[in-house]
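Researcher: Please predict.
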Amino acid sequence: METRDRIVSAAAHVMRTRGLARSTTKEIAKAAGFSEATLYKHFRDKTDLFVAVLREGLPGNLQPLLARLPERVGQGSVRATLEEVARAAIAFYTDTFPIAASVFSEPALLEAHRAALRERQRGPAAITTALARYLAAERDAGRLDPGLDPQSAADLLIGACLNHAFLGEFPGPRERAEEPVHEVAAGFVQTLLGGAAPRGEAGAAG
């Protein structure tokens, strides 16, 4: 494994077990088997590492999937695409919620983190923005209701996935209800598309 990949993998482990707020570059470098100097040859700071963990260091395929959404406009089933996005989003938020939640406990750190993400033109809103663009394109192609608000629809679907991940983590592993993710995702999309299919063409999004 390359040096950078080892650092990202170690950062994902440390951040997942300690939370973002309590993770340090020194601890991450040690977990990767390198010095902090080596870490800083690849990453500017902890925020750079956090962004890399989100994009590269977690299981799932949400980021690549979102990047490919423009290629899917007019292709295949809108329903199937949205279910795939929902499954990936649930997995993404299930993995990242334990990492990011701790930063909200420290206002100064949260503001510094926000500023660093703005500087890099990153942030959680990128997910709903990408999905909203896809929905707008499918609406304009006539495959969704012409009255659909793409941003609201994206917020509803991604928000449901985030809520599901949060509620799944809150009770603890022993009390967690193990409803299959594909069933949860299908239910979210079915509810969303119930009012989004083109009038008189209810099967177009299916």
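Model: DSSP finds ten helices and no strands in the chain.
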